[in-house]
Amino acid sequence: MIFQSFILGNLVSLYMKDLKNPFILIHENKILDKNIFAQAIGAISCNEVKRPLLVVANDVEEEVAGFVVTNETFSKTKVKVTNNEMIIHGGSGNQVYIEDRCEQLSDAIEMSTSDYEIKLLEERLQMLSSRVAILKVGGATTAESRKKRKRATNALNAAKAAMEEGIIPGGGVALLHASEELEKLPAMNIGEKIGVKLLQHAVKKSTDVL
To answer: What family classification does the UniProt entry report for this protein (predicted)?
Structure first.
């Protein structure tokens, strides 16, 4: 299971690697001094088993950039760091704490008046509340598998677009609602009424066919 994925990976391509069972140091501000790692390094050096250190921070001063990469003391935690993102595999978070934090973020979103802040809070909430699903697509032949995979990809993209931009009812439902609104038009002469009835009959046709 992928517990978390962070945009913006490591600062230096030299440190791009996969980390297994690392220690994790998280700092909310920009790291300006190497001494900030003193306690973490001391704790790691006392450990009999050599384990990597993952440092997650808002930003890092150039002279200490070499320290910036990685993780937490979970026995089965794995970390993959690329140039664009960092992915933590094997989440061990407390579900109660996570749900409480999600509620706090939801409250903060409602109270905030800054569009930029709301966007950041929504992204953070999405990271904490999202889940991962694995879709397996196959077929009798390579061509069939490729065709089905393309269909599955298109379906996922359509679902994502609907979540982001919204949807409207299909199957002629919008036209059916529009026909009902025609009844609310002001008083008309006989010719206009006949025209409205014909239009109502036409827009309802797609629903009748279904």
So the answer is: Belongs to the chaperonin (HSP60) family.
